[in-house]
Specification:
Blueprint lengths: L2 H27 L6 H26 L7 H16 L3 E3 L4 E3 L3 H25 L4 H20 L4 E2 L3 H8 L1 E2 L2 E2 H19 L1 H11 L1 H6 L4 H27 L1 E2 L7 H11 L11 H20 L4 H26 L1
Antiparallel strand pairs: 1-2, 3-6, 4-5
Helix pairs in contact: 1-12, 2-7, 2-8, 2-10, 2-11, 2-12, 3-4, 3-5, 3-10, 4-5, 4-10, 6-10, 7-8, 8-10, 11-12, 11-13
């Protein structure tokens, strides 16, 4: 193996090595970390971030960013919960509508898709920077959540719905299955479909992609719509697990999603990244969060540590990108 090939292989294994060392350090200082109960709990929590981070990966590969996923998660969860409570009155129109659990879930996902679609539309047709557009949507979606819930949690959603977030299938938590399905579909899309190749092309060089005939605006709009839908899936998982839709749900989730994407090796400049890398990044963030709690680290210091991890990951990404140039 040549030196260049060895260096490239080592770069690919960096997240896996980091995860191994992180698990080893936490296991040394906490005897509760390696218990099956704790590991399954970590996997449930990671499942939500995986769903959000997969959507974020598509956005970042296309050279964008989505800061609104946490608020979209909260709004989708609130909408789903309200329609599960034996029907609900839509605050904006005064219309009373009831839904089955499946119908409520589909409406919640559709709401996430609509908000994501608005993000993409504003970015592509009004040429607003993704950071600004999604920052505005972060505030709008949070406000919509407060209006929808009137600032109060929506609880007692039924055992059938609770199974989604707390149930098991073939010895594995259902949220893990859902995250696995999202991952497989995303990997297939990015590797085997024309749409996936278009996302990479737009992130690599948008002008060249446009000149080659790719409908850039349409692809980018669909990418943000998918990000919103996957955030809504995460919102449904959180709402189901808690048996309650909290108005402040999802606060800070966008940071964990971005951290997972960056740690997983996706370039913030776009055009480069892998879904499986993001999944590994989400596992690292989940294990880090769990380990800091088990070790009794102050919540304030937890934020500092996660911020430093993101900063280090970005510095490594930039240095590797510079080496390739």
């Amino acid at each position: 193996m040549s030196v260049i090939a060895y260096k490239k292989r080592l770069q690919q294994l960096q997240p896996l090595i980091a995860l191994f060392l992180l698990c080893l350090i936490i296991a040394i200082f906490s005897d509760r970390f390696m218990t099956m109960t704790n590991l399954w709990n970590v996997m449930r929590q990671i499942s939500v971030n995986i769903c959000i981070a997969v959507g974020m990966t598509l956005v970042i590969i296309s050279a964008g960013i989505d800061l609104s996923v946490g608020s979209i998660l909260a709004f989708a969860g609130a909408v789903t919960a309200s329609f599960l409570s034996m029907g609900a009155e839509i605050p904006f129109f005064g219309i009373y509508i009831g839904f089955t659990p499946l119908g409520a879930i589909l409406v919640g996902i559709a709401m996430g898709g609509i908000l994501g679609l608005v993000n993409g539309w504003v970015i592509t047709y009004f040429k607003v920077q993704p950071f600004v557009a999604t920052l505005a949507m972060l505030t709008i979606a949070r406000g919509l959540t407060m209006l929808w819930t009137q600032g109060y949690p929506i609880s007692s959603l039924g055992k059938e719905f609770a199974t989604i977030g707390t149930g098991w299938f073939l010895g594995v938590p259902i949220p893990v299955w859902i995250a696995a399905i999202v991952t497989v579909l995303a990997v297939f899309m990015m590797k085997k479909t024309r749409f996936g190749r278009y996302i990479y092309a737009i992130g690599g060089n948008e002008r060249a992609a446009r000149l080659s005939g790719i409908k850039v605006n349409r692809v980018k709009t669909l990418v943000y719509m998918l990000s919103g839908m996957l955030a809504a899936v995460g919102g449904i998982l959180v709402t189901s697990r808690l048996d309650s839709a909290q108005p402040n749900a999802g606060a800070g989730y966008e940071l964990d999603a971005i951290a997972a994407v960056v740690i997983g090796g996706t370039s913030l400049s776009g055009g480069r990244g892998l879904i499986m890398g993001t999944v590994l990044g989400a596992v690292i963030i989940g294990v880090l969060n769990n380990g800091l709690v088990l070790l009794g680290v102050s919540p304030f210091w937890q934020q500092v540590v996660k911020g430093l991890v993101i900063l280090i990951a970005v510095i490594i990404d930039r240095s590797q990108h510079k080496d390739k140039k």
